[in-house]
Amino acid sequence: MIFWRVKPLDQILETAQKKALKRQLGALQLTLLGIGAIIGTGIFVLSAVAANAAGPGMMISFVIAATVCGLAALCYAELASMVPVSGSAYTYSYAVLGELVAWVVGWALILEYAVAASAVSVGWSGYMVGLLNSWGLNVPHALAAGPFDPNPGIVNLPALLIALLITGLLLLGTTKSAAFNAVLVAIKVTALTAFIAIALPESNPQNYEPFMPTGFSGVFMAAATIFFAYVGFDAVSTAAEETKDPQRNMPIGIIGSLAICTIFYLLVAAAMIGSVGAQPGGGLSQSAEPLAYVMRSIGWPIAGDLIATAAILALPSVILMMLYGQTRIFFVMSRDGLLPGVFSKIHPRWHTPHVVTIVTGLFVSLFAALFPVGKLADISNSGTLFAFFLVSLAVLVLRKTQPERYRPFRTPAVMIICPLAMAGCAFLFFNLSGYTELMFLAWAGIGLLVYYAYGYRRSHLANGTTG
Question: How far apart are CA 224 and CA 230, in angstroms?
Answer without folding.
Answer: 11
